[in-house]
Structures are given as C-alpha cells and as structure tokens.
Design brief:
CATH architecture: Alpha-Beta Barrel
Order of helices and strands: EHHEHEHEHEHEHHEHEHH
Distance between the termini: 13 Å
CATH class: Alpha Beta
Radius of gyration: 17 Å
Number of strands: 8
Strand content: 15-25%
Helix content: 40-55%
C-alpha cells in the first residue's frame, strides 16, 4: 500500500500574482504534477484571494484528471462556492487575514463549530468528501468524528518546526497517537503543513496515514530541480516511509 500524494499549487499562483501576469498558471502546474505522479491536487481559496482566485478553482475542477481538494474556511461564502463547484473533497481550515500561512488546527468547540457542521452537512448532501484540518490530539480526532467528517488532516507544523531531535520525537508520538485514534474511529487520516522531502519519511511511516498534502516545499524544490523532478522526489520519499512501515 502506498500513501496518496496531493500537491497544493497555491504558490504557483503566488508567483503569478507577484507581478500581476497571467503566468505561471496554477492549472498547468497542477497538470504537470499529475503527469509526474501526484494523486490529487489541493488548492486553498482564501477570503482575501491572496493566491488562488475563483477562476483558478473553476478551471482546476474542469482541467485536472485526479481530483480537486478545496481547502476553505467554514464560511457561508465558501460553503456556497463548494456546493456549486462540487470538488472531490473539501478540507476545512482555520483562516485569519493577518497570518502568513495556516497556523494551527480548527477549533471544533465553541465559536465557529456551527460553521464546520454546516460545511460537513453540505458536503454530505452534495457527495463531497469532507476533511478537517486539526491538531494531532485524540480529543480533536474524536470531535471530528462526532461531527461526521470523513477524514482528518493532522497539522504537522509543530513536528516540522522543532529545533531538537527529542522534541521531534515527542511531536511524532503525538501524530502516532492521533492517527491511531482516527483509525479506531474509522476515519481516513491525512497529514500536512511544513512537510519536506527530509522530514516526510517518519510521518509516512506512521501506520494509518493514507495521504499527505504538500505545497510550499514542492514549489520551492521545483525552482532548482523542475516541477516533475520535485514531485517525483516526494513520491520517492513516500515510498521510503512506506517501506519503513512494513518492517
């Protein structure tokens, strides 16, 4: 068994938008990723449209051959867009305008939880897979299951940002525990945020991880090795992790 590799093409749009040109085109980037072995394409339509814009998402949906995972906040605007577009999957993420990138997992209790429930219910009605981007905590995994999500995506940012090996082992243990609980509850378990070719292998080696979502590191590597080779290098890292799992 392998692990699905979904490539986030947001930062192709970031480069385009820096100059206000029509290129590079994130749709072409997505197609090249598919040709190189990506199992799916992820794109985040933010409220402020800082990288992807609505037309990008529409064109991605109609142009790719794998499946579009739409990252989105659980707002009325985004729920309506996802309902019209019907991507293969939606991943609900927290979103703040002042953040540079997503800083943590969803808060599944209190303010905002009702929006998450509405988004999940819409996805069920429209035949869309629903995933929640959450902290690697068993209690959050349980809450995601109670809300009716099909999948969870564990936030790997804290694991990726550790300064010392001992802290990395602690964060990896959190990911293992959260994955185990997700599998017990019948959830699909994905992982993402901050993953590179170098720190990916131990995450993929966790029994129960079925998908990784990677964007920034792929586009960064593509600057030096080209997009096709960058995607293939991540596929190779995934296979190394899978082999460790089999031992």
């Amino acid at each position: 068994m392998s692990v699905r590799l979904h490539i986030n093409v947001d930062h192709v749009a970031t480069v385009r938008n820096a100059r206000g040109t029509r290129y590079p085109d994130p749709v072409l980037g997505a197609q090249l990723c598919e040709a190189a072995g990506a199992d799916g394409i992820t794109a985040h339509l933010r409220e402020d449209r800082r990288h992807m814009v609505d037309d990008d998402i529409i064109r991605l949906k109609s142009s790719i051959s794998t499946g579009l995972n739409l990252e989105m906040a659980a707002t009325e605007e985004m729920i309506a867009i996802a309902s019209r577009l019907r991507p293969a999957a939606i991943t609900l993420v927290p979103e703040r305008r002042e953040e540079r990138t997503t800083e943590g997992g969803l808060l599944l209790r209190g303010e905002g939880a009702e929006g998450v429930r509405r988004a999940i219910n819409m996805a069920k009605r429209r035949g869309i897979k629903s995933s929640l981007f959450i902290a690697p905590e068993p209690s959050d995994v349980e809450e995601a299951h109670a809300m009716g999500a099909d999948q969870i995506e564990l936030h790997t940012g804290e694991y990726c940002n550790v300064a010392h090996a001992s802290a990395g082992l602690r964060e990896l243990a959190r990911l293992v525990a959260a994955t185990r609980r997700g599998v017990e509850l019948g959830l699909q378990v994905a992982a993402g945020h901050g993953l590179t070719r170098h720190n990916l292998v131990p995450v993929v080696a966790i029994d129960g991880i079925v998908e990784v979502n990677i964007g920034h590191a792929v586009i960064a590597d593509a600057l030096f090795m080209g997009l096709e080779r960058a995607v293939q290098a991540f596929r190779q890292a995934i296979e190394r992790g899978v082999r460790l799992r089999r031992r």
